[in-house]
Amino acid sequence: MSSQSDAYLDGNAAAGELNRIFAFDITAAQGQCVRCGAKRHFAEAHLYVECPGIVARCPVCGQVLLRLVNAGKRLLLDLRGMAYLALSPSEFEDSGV
Ligand SMILES: [Zn+2]
Predict the structure, then answer these.
(1) What are the C-alpha distances in Å from 25 to residues 16, 55, 80?
(2) Number of neighbours of residue 30 by Cβ within 10 angstroms
(3) Of 18, 31, 50, 53, whose Cβ has the fewest other Cβ atoms within 10 Å?
(4) Apex CA 77: angle with CA 73 and CA 80, to 5°?
(5) Residue pLDDT tens, the chain, 97 long
(6) Strand pairing category for 39-41 and 30-33
(7) Which of 89, 86, 68 is nearest to 32 (CA)?
C-alpha cells in the first residue's frame, strides 16, 4: 500500500506541459539516468504532480530526471538528471517537425 506522498503518474501525464516546450513528443524519447544508467522511454518515468510544477523520477533508482516549474512569466526546465534524451527520426515525422 502506498501513501499519498508516494503517489505518482507515468511519464505520459507530462505530455501536455512538455508540449509547451518541445516540438516533439518527449514521452516517446529514450533517456538515460545519470545515476544508475538505466535507459528508458520517458513515458516510463514516475511523474509527481503534487508539487509546484512537475517532477519526473527514474523508475529504477528514483533519481530526479526532469523538473518543470511555471514561475510566473517563465518556465524553468531542469534536465540534469538525464545523461541524454534520444529521439528517432520517425518520432519527428510523426509530430510534424
Ligand atoms: Zn536511475
Answers:
(1) 9, 17, 19
(2) 17
(3) 50
(4) 155
(5) 444 557 899 988 888 888 888 888 888 899 999 999 999 999 999 999 887 889 999 999 999 999 999 888 888 999 999 999 998 767 556 554 4
(6) antiparallel
(7) 86
Q: Report in angstroms the alpha-carbon separations of 45 from 11, 32, 72, 78, 93.
A: 5, 11, 26, 15, 24
96 Cα–ligand 1 center, Å = 31
pTM value is 0.77
pLDDT at 97: 46
* Residues, beta carbon < 5 Å, ion ligand 1: 33, 35-36, 38, 58, 60-61, 63
How far apart are alpha carbons 31 and 86 in whole angstroms? 6
